[in-house]
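Form 12-C: Joint structure prediction
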Amino acid sequence: MKKVQLAIVGGGPAGLAAAIAAREAGLQDILIIERGEALGGILGQCIHAGFGLHTFGQELTGPEYAQRFIDRVEDMKIPYLLGTMVLDINENKVLTVTGRETGLIQIQAEAIVLAMGCRERPRGALNIPGTRPAGIYSAGTAQRLVNLEGYLPGRDVVILGSGDIGLIMARRMTLEGAKVHAVAEVMPYSGGLKRNIVQCLDDFNIPLLLSTTVVDIQGQGHIESVTLAKVDGRRKPIPGTEQVIPCDTLLLSVGLLPENELSLSAGVALDGVTGGPVVGDDLSTSLPGVFACGNVLHVHDLVDFVSEEAGRAGRSAAEYVLHRRSAGRTVALRGKNGVRYTVPQHIDADAMADTVTVRFRVGQPYRGAALCAWAGDKLLRRIPKRILTPGEMESFPIRKADIPADCDTITFTVEEAAQ
Amino acid sequence: MYDVLIVGGGAVGCAVARELSRYQLNMCLVERGEDVCVGTSKANSAIVHAGFDAAPGTLKARFNVEGSEMMEGLSRELDFDYRRNGALVLCFDEADMPRLRELHQRGKKNHVQGLEILWGDALRKKEPALSDKVYAALYAPTSAIVCPFGMTIAFYENARKNGCRFQFDTAVERIERTGDHFTVHTSRGDMAAKVVVSCAGVHGDTLHNQLCHKQYHTVPRRGEYCLLDKKDGKIVDRTIFQLPSAMGKGILVSPTVHGNLLLGPTATDQEDRDSVATSAAGLDTVLSTAGRSVPNLPVRDVITSFAGLRAHLAETDDFVIGESAENFFEALGIESPGLTSAPAIGRHLAKAVAEKLRAAEKADFDPTRRDIPHLREMTFEKRAALVAENPAYGNVICRCEGISEGEIVEAIHRGARSLDGVKRRCRAGMGRCQGGFCSPKVMALLCRELGVPMEALTKSGGGSYLVQGKTKEAQA
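Section 2 - Result
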């Protein structure tokens, strides 16, 4: 059986940054396994600008951002396989891998970084009633067809969901000559970044219909129209508010799901809220030697944060192989009062770096609120926030020196502004 | 002139074609869709019913029990997915026990083997996920699950191998008796045949009424379903029914042969014979009623919902099967247990037609057919050998179901022309992302293998085009 010190599952932004960091930490024997035909993952089809402001201080397109990491991987001569998919990972860290070049083989890894990314929630997950005609695509699938294959799914478009991919595709379809009639969002606020709402919708006069959803789809062979309706506070359609919009395309941007079928096959414990593995401050999962980063861990808003997080996972994986860190005191992290979850879910108060960035999302928009970290009823840190929104990921640095010796749980909360 | 023209490429039409292809006959099957198995046969509960539900003495009872007995052997001969998982019919109230007992007695009269009534611990030991409100249940160990596409496509491929012609995108508009034969007017011209076998599903009454004295009216009865992720396929092992009503067998919870969990169907009569739209109310009913049998179903894991039409007849609760007019044979009103009955109806009608035409059996009839290899079910060694032989089997295209380029290419070579055609043959796009990742890749393979441009590709034939043109050309 082929052996490798570190197997990285996925050659997207997370896998690339993890590989580079692991090599910088001194690990030689690394293998990136990528199912696509090129490194870079989903960035290859994200031809819009806006990537890299945090990492490089520059606004890059997706392919440009990815290329910087790909160039480093090439320079460092880190081996990778393309068109090769991991079918299974077992609890002994044996990967079953298939590809045109490799055939069907097994690889024994000492450490594994999970960097498989996420997938789009399909129509079925929303149980949207109506017919099942052609012309309904998830936004990312349409993005691939338009940007990589060069085909336009249709000319009269309605988009359900105001996630970032939906917003980006509203602009892209408009630039390609289609008419985007509306972006409907079931929530009373958008799930995407503010800058995308401005740059992709407002600048093109595309209406964003909040508290609105698709309640019916018409057309037998091809989609002919959708029915939109306003929803009430419990997201139930309000009778009498229906409007039929003729269209030949419905794009769905209704959420991303970390793709953890391989993690489950290995027996890695998952977090019910994030859908990703439960990890410590070193991004180690419940299975020793298996680390996770990027959108397979939790869905990020900006790729810059993916790269940063993946670097941490790569370094931790290298450390695991080269000189295992000794375990110390575990402190659980949890979200409450508006903080939906935390990543990591626990930290090692002895072995952790001087500062660990804890990331999470809030459950609803807030103005003039503050984020707080508590050890019991002791406030460790309070960070005022002008605006908090579910579409944006929050980063909360926790200093090792601030953690009390008797603390076993740190709780993160939103402190709402006084009325 | 054909000896036999079969109208309809669903489960029954294809079963007739397969059985008739045993004989020395010049025959053709016409189908209005772009492929076989595109109507009622593709959207149903995928159950091989044990046969306790149909009234004794009816054609439904007879063909149900016969079909159920044939199915396992056929699944081996023709290599389609089938599993005898057993079924439970739940009774929630002591007051309903007479109805459960009646079902038990009816099953015995229909010669269904192994029926017994289970209570309390014995019941929950079999299916721990059942609601604790269940009072008792009728256990039918011979009930099974089947892949309806797999079965229908297997009949089709085997019939084709044995000489039956298939013509798609051909809708029969009118059948006329012309002297000693029929002239069949279709959307693609006239065809002549000595014998017509109508297996036209919800459209069967239209053809019947053109040729027969006694008139029938089909009332399409819509059934809506929700399909859950494979991670939920083991919540129950058996097919879980509730006590049936006048509208049908009620809403079931069942694993599928591929390991998903299926919930449904509802039963709503409609006039429209084409619309298979789901409704908010219908899907709500599916989820809430299924939840009575199995509480806490993970409804967040629904990956798709769909509706199918049952060809219910207004005039009778039974099938109409046989030679309804001179040389006009038909299977009319094939609603549940139609899928189960299809092989037996096929055998019965084929025999009747062959006798009528005094057709002799072929010496070289080949009853076997192999399915596209299922790589995900193979041992490591067997799969590795196949990949070594043909690297296309190593290239995974549909990540959710683990379907390789080799399997998809094979599906195309066997007759898939659309995304749905590929999906029904090898499951690419049938998984939890519902084709989000693999659709563009499958489209590229369809273009390559069929030698057609992207603009010509459809989801399911007809006008279901997948793209409207190249990006730079599409601007009006």
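Section 3 - Comments
Chain A touches chain B through 56 residues (CB under 8 Å). The first helix of chain A runs from residue 13 to 24.
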